Amino acid sequence: MSTITLSNRHNSVDISLYGGHVLSWHHNNQPIFWLSELADLSGETAIRGGVPICFPWFAEQGSPKHGFARTEMWQLIRHTETEALLELKHNQRTLEIWPNRFRIALTVMLSDDTLLLSLVFDNTDSKSWQFGGALHSYFSCDNARAINVASLDGLMFHNSLTGLEQQFNGCQLPNPIDAIVPSVNKIQFLPSIAASHTVTIDQDGNDSCVIWNPANNHPTDVSKKQQWQFICFESAIVNNLITLQPRQQHQLSQRISLSK
């Protein structure tokens, strides 16, 4: 699997060209993103963990699940020590699944305590098309059952496990959780009691934040001993799909900051 690495004094980020997939981010040797110990890195199937890119739909709004961007080879356009630009364009395989012409540019930019992930979707077709998707980020934590997110208290969310509309009661996340929370632009949490940093996720271009940890119903490429060691905070376009006219663009981004 072809990978590139971004690094500076405190950080290292590994990116796979397969899927345009950010595999890992380590800050002072501590993992910020979670990667399953059972993740398939053969380049033949979707990778569990890191930051999968979902496009042109989220979840099972189409087939394959989460779209095809995460299982396509991306092209490296530019690479410095702290920044990378990758690109995915329509091809014969994608046109057979989704008959629209497009270009996606992924920018990954690293600074001392911040990682910026930016997707720019470009309609290169002669007709309009509609899409959804997500930056499906897996964050490392000691225990997903103990994660507190103060900004969610009192907010309504759609529980995909039950199909019901519910309200967060307090700061602690329910478990298991598969929540679609509309109109959330910022998430802040402490990944562990002993953590030296707070994680802040600023989101733009999304209509929802999807929060996910399936607990005992975890996929086969998540081991039982790791099932509580991650929490997904996903910047998603899921309720209000984006329509792009020819030559129009849309940007979806996560700016992830670490603070003491």
TrEMBL record:
Report the transmembrane regions from the record.
none
Active site per database record: H136, E234
Write out the entry's keywords from A to Z.
Isomerase
Q: Which Pfam family would be a valid example here? A: Aldose_epim
Q: Name one GO biological process term.
A: carbohydrate metabolic process
EC number(s) on file: 5.1.3.15
Q: Which residues form a coiled coil?
A: none
| Leading EC class | isomerase
Identify this protein by name: glucose-6-phosphate 1-epimerase
- Quote the Gene3D superfamilies the UniProt record gives: 2.70.98.10
UniProt family annotation: Belongs to the glucose-6-phosphate 1-epimerase family.
List the GO molecular function terms.
carbohydrate binding; glucose-6-phosphate 1-epimerase activity
- Catalytic reaction annotation: alpha-D-glucose 6-phosphate = beta-D-glucose 6-phosphate
